[in-house]
Amino acid sequence: MKVAVIQFLGSNCDLDSVWALRQIGVTTDLVYYKDFEEIYYKYDGILIPGGFSWGDYLRAGVIAANTSCMKLVCELSESDVPILGICNGFQILTEAGLLPGALIRNDSLSFICKWVTISVESKKSVFTKDLVIKSQLKMPIAHGEGRFATDDLNKLYKNNQVVFKYLGENPNGSMDAIAGVTNLNGNVLGLMPHPERASDNIIGGKDGLKILKYFLT
Amino acid sequence: MKFLVETIIENLPLARNPEGETILRELVHRGGYKDLVSDVRSGKYLRFTVEADHSNEAKEIIFDLCNKLRIFNPIVHKFTISKVEKL
Questions:
Q1: What pLDDT does B16 receive?
Q2: Which end of chain B is more exposed for a tag (fewer CB within 10 A), N or C?
Protein backbone atom coordinates (compact mmCIF):
# COMPACT_ATOMS: atom_id res chain seq x y z
CA MET A 1 0.00 0.00 0.00
CA LYS A 2 1.28 3.49 -0.81
CA VAL A 3 0.33 6.05 1.80
CA ALA A 4 -0.02 9.85 1.70
CA VAL A 5 0.60 11.69 4.96
CA ILE A 6 -1.25 14.94 4.37
CA GLN A 7 0.43 18.07 5.67
CA PHE A 8 -1.85 20.99 6.52
CA LEU A 9 -0.75 24.41 7.70
CA GLY A 10 0.05 23.73 11.34
CA SER A 11 0.50 19.95 11.15
CA ASN A 12 3.39 19.02 13.41
CA CYS A 13 3.32 15.22 13.62
CA ASP A 14 3.62 14.80 9.86
CA LEU A 15 7.33 13.96 9.76
CA ASP A 16 7.03 11.58 12.75
CA SER A 17 4.21 9.77 10.96
CA VAL A 18 6.23 9.48 7.75
CA TRP A 19 9.21 8.17 9.73
CA ALA A 20 7.14 5.61 11.64
CA LEU A 21 5.53 4.26 8.47
CA ARG A 22 8.77 4.14 6.48
CA GLN A 23 10.67 2.33 9.21
CA ILE A 24 8.18 -0.57 9.04
CA GLY A 25 8.46 -0.64 5.27
CA VAL A 26 5.38 1.30 4.14
CA THR A 27 5.97 3.35 1.00
CA THR A 28 5.03 6.81 2.25
CA ASP A 29 5.01 10.34 0.88
CA LEU A 30 4.53 13.60 2.71
CA VAL A 31 1.94 15.47 0.63
CA TYR A 32 1.11 19.16 1.07
CA TYR A 33 -2.66 19.54 1.22
CA LYS A 34 -2.80 21.83 -1.82
CA ASP A 35 -0.91 19.25 -3.90
CA PHE A 36 -3.08 16.29 -2.90
CA GLU A 37 -5.75 16.94 -5.54
CA GLU A 38 -3.14 16.62 -8.32
CA ILE A 39 -1.68 13.31 -7.16
CA TYR A 40 -4.31 11.60 -4.98
CA TYR A 41 -4.69 8.69 -7.44
CA LYS A 42 -1.16 7.52 -6.60
CA TYR A 43 -2.16 6.51 -3.08
CA ASP A 44 -3.97 3.55 -1.55
CA GLY A 45 -4.10 4.91 2.00
CA ILE A 46 -4.24 8.27 3.78
CA LEU A 47 -2.90 9.37 7.16
CA ILE A 48 -3.97 12.71 8.58
CA PRO A 49 -1.41 13.60 11.23
CA GLY A 50 -1.60 15.47 14.49
CA GLY A 51 -0.77 19.10 15.10
CA PHE A 52 -2.64 22.37 15.26
CA SER A 53 -3.99 22.94 11.77
CA TRP A 54 -4.67 26.65 11.26
CA GLY A 55 -3.80 27.23 14.89
CA ASP A 56 -6.98 25.48 16.09
CA TYR A 57 -8.77 28.75 15.27
CA LEU A 58 -12.55 28.61 15.79
CA ARG A 59 -12.40 24.86 16.66
CA ALA A 60 -9.69 22.27 16.30
CA GLY A 61 -9.86 20.81 12.81
CA VAL A 62 -12.72 22.84 11.39
CA ILE A 63 -10.72 24.93 8.92
CA ALA A 64 -8.81 21.93 7.53
CA ALA A 65 -12.13 20.08 7.23
CA ASN A 66 -13.39 22.83 4.91
CA THR A 67 -10.50 22.59 2.44
CA SER A 68 -11.03 21.10 -1.00
CA CYS A 69 -8.38 18.53 -0.05
CA MET A 70 -10.66 17.17 2.70
CA LYS A 71 -13.66 17.23 0.40
CA LEU A 72 -11.67 14.91 -1.87
CA VAL A 73 -10.71 12.73 1.13
CA CYS A 74 -14.44 12.44 1.90
CA GLU A 75 -15.08 11.23 -1.65
CA LEU A 76 -12.21 8.73 -1.43
CA SER A 77 -13.56 7.35 1.84
CA GLU A 78 -16.57 6.10 -0.10
CA SER A 79 -14.26 3.93 -2.22
CA ASP A 80 -13.01 2.05 0.87
CA VAL A 81 -9.67 3.89 0.97
CA PRO A 82 -8.26 3.35 4.49
CA ILE A 83 -7.97 6.67 6.31
CA LEU A 84 -6.33 7.12 9.70
CA GLY A 85 -6.66 10.37 11.65
CA ILE A 86 -4.40 10.90 14.64
CA CYS A 87 -5.15 13.59 17.25
CA ASN A 88 -5.72 16.74 15.14
CA GLY A 89 -6.33 14.30 12.28
CA PHE A 90 -9.15 12.76 14.33
CA GLN A 91 -10.55 16.23 15.00
CA ILE A 92 -10.42 17.02 11.27
CA LEU A 93 -12.23 13.78 10.39
CA THR A 94 -15.08 14.47 12.84
CA GLU A 95 -15.39 18.04 11.60
CA ALA A 96 -15.48 16.77 8.02
CA GLY A 97 -18.33 14.45 8.98
CA LEU A 98 -16.35 11.30 8.19
CA LEU A 99 -16.45 10.17 11.80
CA PRO A 100 -19.22 10.53 14.39
CA GLY A 101 -19.05 12.82 17.41
CA ALA A 102 -16.89 15.81 18.23
CA LEU A 103 -13.70 16.55 20.16
CA ILE A 104 -14.10 19.40 22.61
CA ARG A 105 -11.98 21.13 25.24
CA ASN A 106 -10.53 18.79 27.89
CA ASP A 107 -12.49 18.64 31.13
CA SER A 108 -9.45 19.94 33.01
CA LEU A 109 -9.06 22.88 30.56
CA SER A 110 -5.37 21.90 30.46
CA PHE A 111 -3.23 20.63 27.64
CA ILE A 112 -2.38 17.02 28.55
CA CYS A 113 0.81 15.30 27.41
CA LYS A 114 1.39 11.85 28.89
CA TRP A 115 1.48 8.13 28.16
CA VAL A 116 -1.85 6.35 28.52
CA THR A 117 -3.13 2.81 28.16
CA ILE A 118 -6.06 2.17 25.86
CA SER A 119 -8.05 -1.01 25.26
CA VAL A 120 -9.19 -2.38 21.93
CA GLU A 121 -13.00 -2.47 21.95
CA SER A 122 -13.90 -3.29 18.36
CA LYS A 123 -12.50 -5.11 15.34
CA LYS A 124 -14.84 -3.27 12.99
CA SER A 125 -12.05 -0.96 11.83
CA VAL A 126 -9.66 -2.30 9.20
CA PHE A 127 -6.86 -1.00 11.43
CA THR A 128 -7.91 -3.21 14.37
CA LYS A 129 -9.38 -6.25 12.65
CA ASP A 130 -6.33 -8.36 13.58
CA LEU A 131 -6.06 -7.10 17.18
CA VAL A 132 -7.46 -8.92 20.20
CA ILE A 133 -10.54 -7.41 21.86
CA LYS A 134 -9.66 -5.97 25.29
CA SER A 135 -5.93 -6.10 24.48
CA GLN A 136 -4.05 -3.08 25.81
CA LEU A 137 -1.91 -0.57 23.93
CA LYS A 138 0.37 2.06 25.44
CA MET A 139 0.69 5.33 23.57
CA PRO A 140 1.16 9.03 24.36
CA ILE A 141 -1.59 11.61 24.18
CA ALA A 142 -0.89 15.32 23.66
CA HIS A 143 -3.96 17.50 23.27
CA GLY A 144 -6.07 20.32 24.64
CA GLU A 145 -9.27 19.41 22.81
CA GLY A 146 -9.66 15.65 23.11
CA ARG A 147 -12.87 15.19 25.06
CA PHE A 148 -15.00 12.96 22.88
CA ALA A 149 -18.69 13.88 22.89
CA THR A 150 -21.61 12.59 20.88
CA ASP A 151 -25.35 13.06 20.86
CA ASP A 152 -26.01 9.35 20.27
CA LEU A 153 -23.74 7.06 22.24
CA ASN A 154 -26.12 4.08 21.97
CA LYS A 155 -25.92 4.19 18.19
CA LEU A 156 -22.12 4.03 18.30
CA TYR A 157 -22.21 0.95 20.52
CA LYS A 158 -24.97 -0.65 18.49
CA ASN A 159 -22.89 -0.25 15.33
CA ASN A 160 -19.68 -1.39 17.03
CA GLN A 161 -17.97 1.94 16.20
CA VAL A 162 -16.26 2.50 19.56
CA VAL A 163 -12.77 1.19 18.79
CA PHE A 164 -10.57 2.39 21.69
CA LYS A 165 -11.19 3.39 25.30
CA TYR A 166 -8.85 4.83 27.91
CA LEU A 167 -8.07 2.37 30.69
CA GLY A 168 -7.79 3.59 34.27
CA GLU A 169 -7.94 7.36 34.46
CA ASN A 170 -10.10 9.11 31.83
CA PRO A 171 -7.57 11.84 30.97
CA ASN A 172 -9.83 14.36 29.22
CA GLY A 173 -13.38 13.60 30.35
CA SER A 174 -14.42 11.81 27.15
CA MET A 175 -17.87 10.22 27.19
CA ASP A 176 -17.43 6.62 28.32
CA ALA A 177 -13.65 7.21 28.17
CA ILE A 178 -13.75 6.84 24.37
CA ALA A 179 -10.33 7.35 22.74
CA GLY A 180 -11.08 6.31 19.15
CA VAL A 181 -13.98 5.61 16.80
CA THR A 182 -14.51 4.28 13.30
CA ASN A 183 -17.07 4.99 10.58
CA LEU A 184 -19.90 2.61 9.68
CA ASN A 185 -17.85 1.08 6.90
CA GLY A 186 -14.76 0.50 9.07
CA ASN A 187 -12.26 2.12 6.67
CA VAL A 188 -11.91 5.43 8.55
CA LEU A 189 -10.41 5.46 12.05
CA GLY A 190 -9.68 8.37 14.35
CA LEU A 191 -7.94 8.28 17.71
CA MET A 192 -6.49 10.85 20.08
CA PRO A 193 -3.40 8.84 21.20
CA HIS A 194 -0.37 8.98 18.89
CA PRO A 195 0.64 5.63 17.34
CA GLU A 196 3.55 7.30 15.55
CA ARG A 197 5.01 8.39 18.89
CA ALA A 198 4.90 4.76 20.05
CA SER A 199 6.85 3.34 17.16
CA ASP A 200 10.23 2.39 18.67
CA ASN A 201 11.40 1.08 22.03
CA ILE A 202 13.93 3.90 22.26
CA ILE A 203 11.06 6.40 22.60
CA GLY A 204 9.12 4.35 25.14
CA GLY A 205 7.39 1.57 23.23
CA LYS A 206 6.09 0.44 19.89
CA ASP A 207 2.45 -0.49 20.42
CA GLY A 208 1.49 2.13 17.87
CA LEU A 209 2.90 -0.06 15.11
CA LYS A 210 0.09 -2.55 15.75
CA ILE A 211 -2.26 0.04 14.24
CA LEU A 212 0.06 1.50 11.59
CA LYS A 213 1.06 -1.90 10.20
CA TYR A 214 -2.30 -2.22 8.44
CA PHE A 215 -0.79 0.10 5.84
CA LEU A 216 1.68 -2.70 5.03
CA THR A 217 -1.07 -4.84 3.50
CA MET B 1 -26.72 48.89 4.09
CA LYS B 2 -24.31 47.47 6.62
CA PHE B 3 -25.56 45.47 9.61
CA LEU B 4 -23.79 44.15 12.66
CA VAL B 5 -24.85 40.59 13.56
CA GLU B 6 -23.74 39.21 16.91
CA THR B 7 -23.68 35.45 17.46
CA ILE B 8 -23.04 33.22 20.46
CA ILE B 9 -21.82 29.62 20.36
CA GLU B 10 -22.06 27.60 23.57
CA ASN B 11 -21.90 23.94 24.56
CA LEU B 12 -25.17 22.00 24.60
CA PRO B 13 -26.11 20.63 28.04
CA LEU B 14 -24.77 17.19 27.02
CA ALA B 15 -21.26 18.64 26.94
CA ARG B 16 -20.09 19.92 30.31
CA ASN B 17 -18.75 23.45 30.38
CA PRO B 18 -15.75 23.30 32.73
CA GLU B 19 -14.75 26.91 32.08
CA GLY B 20 -18.15 28.18 33.20
CA GLU B 21 -18.13 25.81 36.16
CA THR B 22 -14.71 27.08 37.24
CA ILE B 23 -15.73 30.75 36.94
CA LEU B 24 -18.85 30.00 39.00
CA ARG B 25 -17.01 28.07 41.70
CA GLU B 26 -13.73 29.96 41.98
CA LEU B 27 -14.82 33.55 41.34
CA VAL B 28 -18.58 34.03 41.64
CA HIS B 29 -19.31 31.76 44.59
CA ARG B 30 -16.02 32.47 46.35
CA GLY B 31 -16.72 36.18 45.86
CA GLY B 32 -19.91 36.04 47.88
CA TYR B 33 -22.60 35.47 45.23
CA LYS B 34 -23.41 31.84 46.05
CA ASP B 35 -27.02 32.56 47.02
CA LEU B 36 -27.70 34.71 43.96
CA VAL B 37 -25.92 33.05 41.03
CA SER B 38 -26.48 29.37 40.29
CA ASP B 39 -24.93 28.86 36.85
CA VAL B 40 -22.33 30.31 34.48
CA ARG B 41 -21.88 29.06 30.91
CA SER B 42 -18.94 30.25 28.83
CA GLY B 43 -19.04 30.32 25.06
CA LYS B 44 -17.67 31.96 21.95
CA TYR B 45 -18.82 35.32 20.60
CA LEU B 46 -18.53 36.21 16.91
CA ARG B 47 -19.53 39.55 15.41
CA PHE B 48 -20.18 39.79 11.67
CA THR B 49 -20.46 42.96 9.59
CA VAL B 50 -22.71 42.13 6.65
CA GLU B 51 -24.21 43.93 3.65
CA ALA B 52 -28.00 43.46 3.37
CA ASP B 53 -31.19 45.33 2.44
CA HIS B 54 -32.84 44.90 5.84
CA SER B 55 -32.14 43.38 9.23
CA ASN B 56 -34.01 40.13 8.59
CA GLU B 57 -31.96 39.53 5.50
CA ALA B 58 -28.76 40.19 7.45
CA LYS B 59 -29.87 37.69 10.07
CA GLU B 60 -30.73 35.07 7.43
CA ILE B 61 -27.37 35.48 5.65
CA ILE B 62 -25.45 34.91 8.87
CA PHE B 63 -27.70 32.06 9.99
CA ASP B 64 -27.20 30.27 6.66
CA LEU B 65 -23.48 31.03 6.59
CA CYS B 66 -22.95 29.65 10.10
CA ASN B 67 -24.82 26.45 9.28
CA LYS B 68 -23.28 25.94 5.85
CA LEU B 69 -19.67 26.59 6.90
CA ARG B 70 -19.99 24.76 10.24
CA ILE B 71 -19.07 27.86 12.22
CA PHE B 72 -20.63 25.89 15.08
CA ASN B 73 -20.78 22.14 15.49
CA PRO B 74 -24.43 21.09 15.88
CA ILE B 75 -23.43 17.87 17.67
CA VAL B 76 -22.14 19.77 20.70
CA HIS B 77 -23.04 23.43 20.24
CA LYS B 78 -26.05 25.69 20.62
CA PHE B 79 -25.99 28.64 18.21
CA THR B 80 -27.82 31.90 18.87
CA ILE B 81 -28.02 35.18 16.99
CA SER B 82 -28.13 37.57 19.90
CA LYS B 83 -28.38 40.92 18.14
CA VAL B 84 -28.80 42.55 14.69
CA GLU B 85 -28.01 46.24 14.49
CA LYS B 86 -27.92 48.69 11.56
CA LEU B 87 -24.55 50.45 11.26
A1: 87
A2: C
Contacts of B44 in chain A (CB under 8 A): 58
The tens digit of pLDDT for each residue in B16-46 reads 888 899 899 988 998 999 999 999 999 999 9
pLDDT, mean over chain A: 97
| Cα-based torsion angle of the residue sequence A160, A165, A171, A174 in order, rounded to the nearest 10 degrees | 10
The CATH number for B59's domain is: 3.30.1280.10
Residue A187: is its pLDDT beyond 90? yes
Q: Which domains does chain A have, with CATH numbers?
A: 2-216 (3.40.50.880)
B87 has a chain A CB within 8 A of its CB = no
ipTM over 0.85: no
**Does residue B11 sit at the A interface (CB-CB below 8 Å)?**
yes
Beta strands in B20-76 (DSSP E): 43-51
Pairing between β-strand A2-7 and β-strand A102-104 as defined by DSSP bridges: unpaired
Domain tally, chain B: 1
Query: Do the bridges between strand A83-86 and strand A188-191 make them parallel or antiparallel, or are there none, so unpaired?
Result: parallel
**Mutation to test the B interface, candidates A63, A66, A94, A151, most B Cβ within 10 Å:** A151
- Which of A62, A106, A151 lies at the smallest CB-CB distance from B75? A151
A-chain residue closest to B71, CA distance: A58
Residues of chain B found within 8 Å of residue A95, distances taken between Cβ atoms: 70, 73
Nearest C-alpha neighbor of A66 from the set A33, A38, A39 = A33
Question: Under 8 Å CB-to-CB from B43, ≥6 apart: which residues?
Answer: B8, B9, B10, B11
